[in-house]
Amino acid sequence: MTKPLLQVHELSKSYGGIKACDRISFDLYPGQVLGIVGESGSGKSTLLGAIADHIAVDHGNVTYLSRSGEDLEIFQLAEAKRRLLMRTEWGFVQQNPRDGLRIRVSAGANIGERLLDIGVRHYGNIRDEAAHWLREVEIDPTRIDDLPAQFSGGMQQRLQLARVLVTRPRLILMDEPTGGLDVSVQARLLDLLRSLVRNFHLSVIIVTHDIGVVRLLAHRLLVMQQGQVVESGLTDQVLDDPQHPYTQLLVSAALTP
Ligand SMILES: Nc1ncnc2c1ncn2[C@@H]1O[C@H](COP(=O)(O)OP(=O)(O)OP(=O)(O)O)[C@@H](O)[C@H]1O
């Protein structure tokens, strides 16, 4: 039987008296897209940050099945190994591309930098790879020397994806990747994400408050309210027949024009 790529076990994180994440557990399988939905303040970003070890948890653990078949306890890894893993097998896509890009260097350098980080040194190859990944994310490779600031918001987000994908990660964590974009730009980005997930057999955890985004992308859903998972399951099942009153509210709010 296929083993989970990621096992999240009883993750908890409080800020003072606020339980931002309260004993969250789930498994993510290879090639699966898991959507995490909930209102602002429900704990989605804290959960994502905790999984990526950006936020120190109070309790719980995360186990990742590496490319070489090792079960790695993320919070127990030595710093160097954790950093290498985050640069190679994992990727993080920020809501604001400015947080995920280096704004003062060219598009090509943004992509190439990730390869330099993992020890690639042949500059010709790096430039070719950067051009290749620009094409993959539907950016004209003749823009390779442009700065991110010369790109539209949607293009910046696609550039961020190229920067993440160049090291061929297996797991991508995304925090509201379509937030703040116009509806038509969002739709194009979602289409692109869908084909990238399929073509590269990516496993993805995507945090959003937008039910439309998870309906299009996610195989499974976790619904969070006040730091807890109140409902989970296959996306269509959860959205077409929500059981928990909070999920019912989210779904009906999304239907109201
Ligand atoms: N650094 C922090 N210090 C104190 N409280 C925090 C901190 N980060 C988050 N919180 C609190 O934890 C709870 C969960 O916040 P979190 O940002 O994870 O929610 P969210 O669902 O991602 O919200 P949003 O969609 O607005 O980003 C909230 O009550 C928030 O105020």
UniProtKB/TrEMBL annotation:
Record keyword ATP-binding present: yes
SUPFAM superfamilies registered for this protein in UniProt: P-loop containing nucleoside triphosphate hydrolases
Matches recorded under SMART domains: AAA (SM00382)
GO molecular function: lyase activity
Domain annotation ABC transporter: ranges: 6-251
Keywords: ATP-binding, Lyase, Nucleotide-binding
Keyword Zinc-finger set for record: no
PROSITE patterns in the cross-refs: ABC_TRANSPORTER_1, ABC_TRANSPORTER_2
Signal peptide: none
Coiled-coil ranges from the UniProt annotation: none
Any Pfam family: ABC_tran
Name of the protein this chain belongs to: Phosphonate C-P lyase system protein PhnK
Organism field: Nostoc parmelioides FACHB-3921
Lineage: Bacteria, Bacillati, Cyanobacteriota, Cyanophyceae, Nostocales
